[in-house]
């Protein structure tokens, strides 16, 4: 992964001075990573090293995943599913519709969408002949999120009429001791724990992400290796540390009036990765009188819908481009049937995308719009692991600079409580 920031329009000394202020916090993160104990808010840094978590997941996958498995139903919302979806969609999910016979697939049930649930029951469940064709993983850190418990109940009850022993195909991932944990144990359902101080949006390298991803055949060791490589870089001092520099640029640019951070992914497969980051930034630093509004754009698609606003509208955005230029080779024929665009004959579609990417950056420069770049080596588990870890560490530094609690989300709890009150009144 390469991180570039020279176009950010900030003075080098301003960046260096702000990095210096983070030195004590960097020392703290280094200590967290060395101690490998789950006693700090930043304990998610231990996950990529935690071989115990990995081996318990490998063991459970060995028991639950057979060649018959076709669908993993991942029930969870927010931090409990966004990381898994980010990785799955980048590598398989986006193209699932083109590969109907590739299994196992992950289906995500997050919100309580009656259309989706209805079709899941009437179109998919009705086709199952063997319980081993399905594996359900319900994930809730608190163990009491309305949407997750509703989806779990609907899915299990509808499968139970067909497969009375369906609870054997259920794995619950939750905090040890939560009400969901206690109930699952009572019912004899397999349970995977989430370390107490690892919050949802920092949990992708825990059982939350690793269990469903490994069940779907993804290389979770490569994902962890990417995280470890990134962690090594992001624990260094100075301007060679991409997480430090990125956090500092986001911070300084927000003080310069850039209240929006547009994350512009030049791969449609990475849209879910963008949404994972949107939550990470939104929940971590969106606190009283503080926050940067994260947005997600897809290149080149959104150039045809948002470029006018981005290039010609208010200069209130800092853009982070994310791209990779080592993907499948698709060639444009030499002899064109529609010779309407010059300079494309015989070139690869990647060359075209690169030209669009470079052209977009030129347009941003011409309009004096600041941007950073994250160039992934490729679209692989390792590169995704690098990006995920880099961004989680960037957010720790940014939260520290903004003097907020990066790890809580009190306003989300507000809406959850009000929903429960309304449901209890029966309205
Ligand atoms: O990041 C967070 O903490 C939230 O987005 C939660 O993950 C989300 O609300 C789901 O909560 P839970 O995992 O407790 O069901």
Explain the overall architecture.
The strands form 2 sheets. The protein has a 5-stranded mixed β-sheet with strand order 1-10-9-7-8, with helices on both faces. Strands 3-2-4-5-6 form a 5-stranded parallel β-sheet, sandwiched between helices. The protein is globular. The model has no long low-confidence stretch (mean pLDDT 96). The longest helix has 22 residues. The chain has 15 helices and 10 strands. Helix 1 packs across helix 10. By secondary structure, the chain is α/β, with parallel strands linked by helices. It has 2 domains: 207 residues, Glucose-6-phosphate isomerase like protein, domain 1 (Rossmann fold), CATH 3.40.50.10490; 182 residues, Glucose-6-phosphate isomerase like protein, domain 1 (Rossmann fold), CATH 3.40.50. The protein binds 5-phosphoarabinonic acid (PA5). 5-phosphoarabinonic acid (PA5) binds next to loops.
Q: In percent, how much strand structure appears in the residues?
A: 5-15%
**How many structural domains?**
2
Unreliable runs: none
Terminal residue distance: 51 Å
Structural class, by secondary structure, is alpha/beta
Q: How helical, in percent, are the residues? A: 40-55%
Strand arrangement across the biggest beta sheet: 1-10-9-7-8
Bound molecules: 5-phosphoarabinonic acid
Backbone shape: globular
Count of individual helical segments: 15
Query: Assembly type of the shown chains?
Result: single chain
CATH superfamily of the largest domain: Glucose-6-phosphate isomerase like protein, domain 1
Series of H and E elements = EHHHEHEHEHEHEHHHEHEHEHEHH
The largest sheet is:
5 strands, mixed
**CATH top level assignment of the largest domain:** Alpha Beta
Mean pLDDT: 96
CATH architecture title of the largest domain:
3-Layer(aba) Sandwich
- Radius of gyration from the CA trace? 23 Å
CATH topology name of the largest domain: Rossmann fold
Record field, number of beta strands: 10
């Amino acid at each position: 992964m390469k991180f570039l920031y020279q176009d950010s329009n900030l003075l080098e000394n301003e960046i260096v001075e702000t990095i210096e202020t983070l030195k004590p916090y960097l020392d703290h993160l280094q200590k967290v990573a060395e101690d490998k104990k789950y006693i700090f808010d930043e304990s998610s840094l231990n996950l990529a090293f935690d071989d115990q978590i990995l081996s318990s997941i490998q063991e459970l996958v060995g028991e639950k995943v057979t060649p018959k498995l076709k669908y993993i139903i991942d029930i969870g919302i927010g931090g409990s599913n966004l990381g898994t979806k980010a990785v799955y969609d980048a590598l398989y999910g986006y193209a699932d519709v083109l590969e109907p016979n590739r299994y196992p697939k992950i289906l995500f049930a997050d919100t309580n969408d009656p259309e989706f649930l209805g079709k899941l029951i009437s179109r998919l469940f009705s086709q199952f002949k063997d319980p081993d064709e399905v594996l359900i993983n319900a994930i809730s850190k608190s163990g009491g999120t309305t949407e997750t418990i509703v989806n779990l109940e609907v899915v299990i009850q509808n499968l139970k009429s067909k497969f009375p022993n369906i609870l054997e195909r259920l794995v619950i991932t939750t905090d040890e001791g939560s009400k969901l944990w206690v109930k699952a144990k009572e019912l004899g359902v397999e349970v995977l724990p989430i370390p107490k101080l690892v919050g949802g949006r920092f949990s992708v390298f825990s059982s939350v992400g690793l269990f469903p991803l490994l069940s779907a055949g993804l290389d979770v060791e490569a994902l962890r290796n990417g995280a470890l490589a990134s962690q090594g870089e992001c624990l260094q001092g100075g301007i060679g540390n991409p997480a430090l520099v990125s956090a500092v640029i986001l911070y300084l640019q927000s003080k310069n009036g850039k209240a929006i951070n547009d994350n512009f992914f030049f791969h449609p497969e990475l849209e879910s990765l963008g949404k994972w980051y949107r939550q990470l930034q939104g929940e971590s630093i969106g606190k009283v009188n503080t926050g940067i509004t994260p947005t997600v754009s897809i290149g080149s698609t959104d150039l045809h819908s948002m470029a006018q606003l981005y290039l010609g509208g208010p200069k209130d955005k800092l853009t982070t481009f994310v791209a990779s230029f080592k993907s499948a080779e698709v060639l444009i024929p030499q002899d064109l049937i529609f010779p309407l665009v010059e300079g494309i004959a015989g070139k690869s579609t990647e060359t075209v995308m690169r030209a669009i990417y470079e052209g977009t950056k030129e347009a941003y420069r011409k309009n004096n719009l600041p941007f950073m770049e994250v160039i992934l080596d490729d679209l692989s588990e390792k590169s995704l692991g690098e990006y995920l870890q880099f961004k989680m560490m960037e957010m720790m530094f940014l939260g520290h600079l903004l003097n907020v609690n990066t790890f809580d989300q009190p306003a989300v709890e507000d809406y959850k409580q009000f929903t429960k009150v309304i449901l209890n009144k029966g309205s």
